[in-house]
Design goal:
The chain has 123 residues and is mostly helical. It has one domain (2-121). It is built from three helices and two strands. It has a two-stranded antiparallel sheet. α2 (40-73) runs antiparallel to α3 (80-109). The structure holds zinc ion. Residues 21, 23-24, 26, 38-39, 41-42 line the site of zinc ion.
């Protein structure tokens, strides 16, 4: 019994469990994958692209806010600094919220990446 378990452990460490990442369709070690079976590279890539989307959303939000302040509030020179700080805060908060939303949508739709090639088609 002792010997059998020992061999089993050795077998396991030599051949760690592999699984196919649902996003890039490549076989990767199960270790490092998350519960949706996204490999580490895909998680990183998704976060990176979500961050880019977040900044775009934040920029649109901040530009809209700046236009609204400019047109309707028409701040005097005395308080303009406070409004600029508000716009900057909107940009930062908007980019964070936008990033979370973009990442959440990517996780929710859980589709394979555009650049992913199914293993059988790659040769
Ligand atoms: Zn992957």
């Amino acid at each position: 019994m002792f010997g059998r378990n020992d061999r089993g452990a050795a077998w396991r460490s030599r051949f760690p469990e592999r699984a196919t990442c649902v996003r890039c369709l490549q076989e990767k070690d199960l270790e490092g994958m998350d519960r949706l079976l996204w490999c580490e590279e895909c998680q990183k890539a998704a976060r990176k692209s979500a961050t880019a989307w977040g900044w775009k959303g934040g920029a649109v939000l901040a530009a809209g806010l700046a236009a609204w302040i400019w047109l309707f509030i028409q701040p005097s020179d005395l308080v303009i600094g406070g409004w600029i700080a508000t716009v900057v805060a909107a940009l930062l908060i908007g980019s964070r919220v936008g990033r979370e939303i973009a990442y959440g949508v990517m996780r929710f739709t859980n589709r394979k990446a555009v650049e992913a090639v199914p293993p059988e088609a790659s040769e």
